[in-house]
Design goal:
Blueprint: E1 2-7, E2 10-13, E3 18-26, E4 28-39, E5 46-51, E6 57-59, E7 67-72, E8 77-82, E9 91-101, E10 106-110, E11 114-119
Parallel strand pairs: 2-11
Antiparallel strand pairs: 1-3, 3-8, 4-5, 4-9, 5-6, 7-8, 9-10, 9-11
């Protein structure tokens, strides 16, 4: 009912930048929170950043001052600008969208993930 597609991952050198995008589509009535998670090999998935429909933002401590989340409500899209990348940022990044469908059902949807690899 709700599809979530990420793009923008890839390979970057330490100190470099990447911008991730995530677009939600389908039977969407409204979107509450949008968030980015990441999962490195052998580690649990962690919340990197989130943004509410009202614009309230959270970041995990390890990315504060380096990553910036933003959203375009008209496009049902969330972005993650990642600057000053570090090798420890290497992970698969997942987008999560908390939405209400046109059938008025609350729905949490994950994207398929996009790989971010930072070389030292």
């Amino acid at each position: 009912q709700v599809q979530v597609v990420e793009s923008g991952g890839g390979l970057a050198q330490a100190g470099g930048s990447l911008r991730l995008s995530c677009a939600a589509s389908g039977s969407i009535f409204s979107i509450y929170d949008m968030a980015w998670y990441r999962q490195a090999p052998g580690k649990q998935r962690e919340l990197v950043s989130s943004i509410t429909s009202g614009g309230s933002i959270t970041y995990v401590d390890s990315v504060k001052g380096r990553f910036t989340i933003s959203r375009d409500n008209a496009k049902n899209t969330v972005y993650l600008q990642m600057n000053s990348l570090k090798p420890e940022d290497t992970a698969v990044y997942y987008c999560y969208v908390d939405s209400v469908t046109t059938a008025r059902a609350r729905f949490g949807s994950w994207g398929q993930g996009t790989q971010v690899t930072v070389s030292s």
